[in-house]
Write a structure and sequence with these properties.
With 290 residues, this protein is α/β, with parallel strands linked by helices. The protein has one domain: Aldolase class I (TIM Barrel, Alpha-Beta Barrel), CATH 3.20.20. 40% of the residues lie in helices and 18% in strands. α2 packs antiparallel against α11, α7 runs parallel beside α8 and α8 packs parallel to α9. The longest helix has 17 residues. The protein is globular and about 45 Å long.
């Protein structure tokens, strides 16, 4: 049985909040998440504070994390070579994540770059990662379609992936950025890519409405995916989604799915419960997706 990985994403949950969450509160929450036993924590980002003001204290948060007794690895998002060079200074960070869109419209909105320019910068970031002994995770935004009427087909995705793999990218996560994918869409993307690129680690970052969270997770699992992004309580989501019910996949559902399929998980349920408690005042939510 292939090892399943849960990527907990407090960064994604936090970045869209309108009010600034204090550095102290972020540190306390992420330190609690470090005790749960997740494979990786997507904890912060090295992007312009003008673009993502919520993440302007990522370095301070990193300095406050208690990593000695945690098995979890850290991932930070970068959007350009400047951010990659900054993140590369910190040995505590194992992964750099780079968002690359399959939609030209979204790529321009998200990073003010064309897809081709973003890809060129991504390959430069890959070089930085190799020099700094870090792994690059490429997130394919709008991985299951887009709301902009930009061209899209699962075959396009496979061709896109082929280009990435030929240039040395080995971890790719498909993102349902605005929560439009159905189970068939998910399988139509994941199944052929896993079949063709057996040495690549494929993951999913699925934004969902409450009623279709589990069916989307199950579709990804049945297609062969074993790397899942989530957030405790399902907090956060893409600000582009507009629909407030489109949020991150609740980590609790991912755990349930993997346990139902007999995957051995080293999850401390007590630490998980405490992390859920700490998240509630941060997001002021009562999520009903689980």
């Amino acid at each position: 049985m292939r090892t399943a990985k849960i990527i907990e994403c407090p960064r994604d949950a936090l970045q869209g909040l309108g009010r600034f969450v204090s550095t102290h509160q972020k540190i306390a929450w992420i330190n609690q998440l470090l005790k749960v036993g997740f494979d990786t924590l997507d904890f912060g980002s090295f992007v312009s504070p003008k673009a993502i003001p919520q993440m302007k204290d990522t370095v301070e948060v990193l300095e406050g994390l208690e990593l000695e007794d945690s098995s979890s690895k850290l991932l930070a998002i970068v959007a350009n070579t400047r951010g990659a060079l900054e993140a590369g200074k910190f040995p505590q960070i194992h992964y750099l994540g780079f968002p690359l869109s399959l939609s030209e419209t979204f790529q321009l909105r998200n990073t003010n770059k064309s897809i081709e320019k973003a890809k060129s910068e991504m390959y430069e970031i890959h070089e930085i990662c190799m020099k700094k002994e870090k792994d690059l995770v490429v997130y394919l935004s709008m991985g299951f379609g887009n709301p902009y009427e930009d061209a899209y087909h699962p075959d396009m995705v496979q061709g896109f992936v082929a280009d990435l793999v030929s240039n040395g990218i080995s971890i790719i996560s498909f993102a349902d950025t605005v929560g439009i994918a159905g189970p068939k869409d998910i399988k139509d993307v994941i199944t052929p890519n896993i079949s063709q690129f057996s040495n690549v680690e494929f993951g999913v970052h699925l934004h969902s409405r409450p009623e279709n969270c589990m069916e989307k997770l199950l579709a990804a699992y049945e297609a062969g995916c074993r790397r899942f992004d989530g957030v405790v309580n399902g907090a956060g989501g893409c600000p582009m989604a507009i629909d407030e019910l489109v949020g991150n996949t609740p980590t609790e559902l991912i755990i349930r799915l993997l346990e139902n399929h007999n995957h051995p998980l080293k999850i401390d349920k007590g630490a998980l419960a405490k992390s859920k408690e700490l998240a509630i005042p941060i997001f002021e939510i009562d999520n009903n997706c689980h």
